[in-house]
## 1
Amino acid sequence: MFDPLVLGTSSAKSSIIRAATAESLATSAGKPTQELVGKLEELAAGGVGTIITGYAYVTQDGKPSEGALGIYDDSFSQEYRALVNRVHSHDARIIMQLVYGGSKSKLADDDPRWLVSDNALADDSGHVALEAGLSQRKASNVRIIGPSAVENPRTHLVPMEATHGDMARIAQAFGAAAARAKSYGFDGVEIHAAHGYLLSQFLSGSFNVRDDRYGGALANRARFVLECVSETRRQVGSEFPILVKVNSCDVLGDPKGDLGGLGEDESAQVCAWLAEAGASAIDVSGDWHAVPGREVAGKPFFAAFGARLARELALPIVVTGGWRDFALIERHMAEDGIAAIAMSRPFICEPDLANRWLAGDTAPSKCTSCGYCASKPGIPCAQQ
Ligand SMILES: Cc1cc2nc3c(=O)[nH]c(=O)nc-3n(C[C@H](O)[C@H](O)[C@H](O)COP(=O)(O)O)c2cc1C
């Protein structure tokens, strides 16, 4: 865990990563606030080797939630350079996660992507509850892009099928965002192709029912994600680290993909293609709905799949999700051939966890995985 982690041009002092975690503290334009910068600096001072930022949207129409970071144009230079300097001053590395939200996005009532702008469909309080029948109608009146016009079971949003022009624009935007992150001093980028956001939906037979060259067979469903990665590689040059976060499978407990989502064999094949397309490392996660709130039962969620990828592929494998126990991490890192582990909630609970472990107090993380942190902006820990 405390061995250096080398990814392309970046070398971190340890192989402990803070997994991408949206603090929901950015301004409505996506700029980091002082509070957000302070949280990341606290983490860096707490000894973590690398921080992956919360997701940052690469185009304005791809904003996944209120308070998310943005990197969709050239106006972010000053704020991000300052953030990177603060993190680097504690000898930590920082990687920016890039996302296009799609139909999993949480839209505020006044989001311009709603096509119905009056309050006709809102309830008495002016609030539109997604569960209500009325909002179902509103939910299909939205300018959101998806692989196909399939209702999202979680948000009820019905996206518009992406045109080839949309896809070219979004792939270009991933590349441009990565080039910006590189020029601001970030140590790498992570393309978010997991958790049911747009790229993950393209891979999934449940969301992607297209009959053109971007749908159907796995090679077609993977085409758009691979285009985003190769375009990003083209724009940042050959050495800059590009991680890709993927689902091991789309539905936990369904590794074969029998329920229609991506299965583990398919995911492993996609990861091999991602390596050819220019990915520097794979970050293994899983499930459409990310993980907050899930019971951990002392077990890392995706360690077995991570070990499989480490055996089958030549690029570094990061495994995210459920790590709490020092000895268990050390054992998996020694036996599974994985390059690094990433934790989200343990660092919310204890920003200085890495320093505590390094100092010899190897008691497990105090995080109980209750998921309270995901319920509010500022990611408060229920234990503090
Ligand atoms: C508050 C919160 C925000 C998160 N935001 C992101 C995000 O922006 N991008 C992402 O890929 N995963 C996000 N995740 C998921 C984590 O990166 C991670 O995959 C998940 O929490 C499991 O890891 P853990 O058991 O160490 O918490 C978030 C998780 C939490 C709790």
## 2
Amino acid sequence: MKRRWLAIFLLGLGGCAVGGISASTERSSPRVLVLGGTGQLGAMVTRELVAAGARVVVFARPSSDRTTLVGLPVEFVTGDLLMADEVERALRGRRFDVIVSAVRVEDGDPNFYSKMMPSLLVAARAAGVRQFIHHGAVGAGDNVKKFIGLGWERVPGIFERLKDQGEGERLLRESGIRYTIIRNARLYPADHAATGVAKLTEDDTVLTPMTRADLARLTRECLLAAACLDKTYHVRDDSLAWPPPRR
Ligand SMILES: NC(=O)c1ccc[n+]([C@@H]2O[C@H](COP(=O)([O-])OP(=O)(O)OC[C@H]3O[C@@H](n4cnc5c(N)ncnc54)[C@H](OP(=O)(O)O)[C@@H]3O)[C@@H](O)[C@H]2O)c1
């Protein structure tokens, strides 16, 4: 399993610089905590990581529908990410190499990340997390200034939510944990196949749609990859039509 993980990991890296990460990955399969693993993107990320040999634990609420993960060799920890005591209890005494957040803000809560991140990051540090891969949003924080004139002001509450996304990013960057932020834009329906051509870019003016399947692959490729550490990415996929179909 260890050799298989290393082979898939290196294949997936493509052109990424690996640095010293391959040596540590060789020693053991990475332990990954997936937040939002019962969701559409989270379940795809979980499958991708399990297939690559990672040991995955999914953070889920007691009410979460776990059917998309049936049959996968994953463990669950239970709690609500907005409840600091539940997060602390769920991670207490555990060790993780990586946290992947594929959480989607519920009910447009404009303080979601401001509430979630502080206790989560404390628990992540205590758990020895070496990389936090955060699926956020294009337009987070000051990035919104790059997209003036697109009519976003017609979307109720969007600027409050993007400010909160920016606060989540800031808390992560200042936490001392190495981070990889992947800002998502409009997603194609969950059953849309990967295009295979989506790429991460540090050009923060990029705004293209994308599929969750490609995001899952890009997440796996960045797992403990030196080239992805302390980076904020947008995703470019010029093969998909805008706007995505609604289903
Ligand atoms: N959908 C889009 O068009 C779109 C656009 C831009 C960015 N994104 C980003 O893409 C990512 C995933 O989106 P998605 O549509 O695939 O997500 P999704 O299917 O709606 O899944 C959301 C996940 O977040 C979990 N979650 C939400 N609040 C939680 C809480 N308080 N405690 C614990 N878990 C919680 C949900 O748990 P339950 O199973 O318990 O509900 C679920 O597992 C997110 O980062 C989102 O911001 C999506």
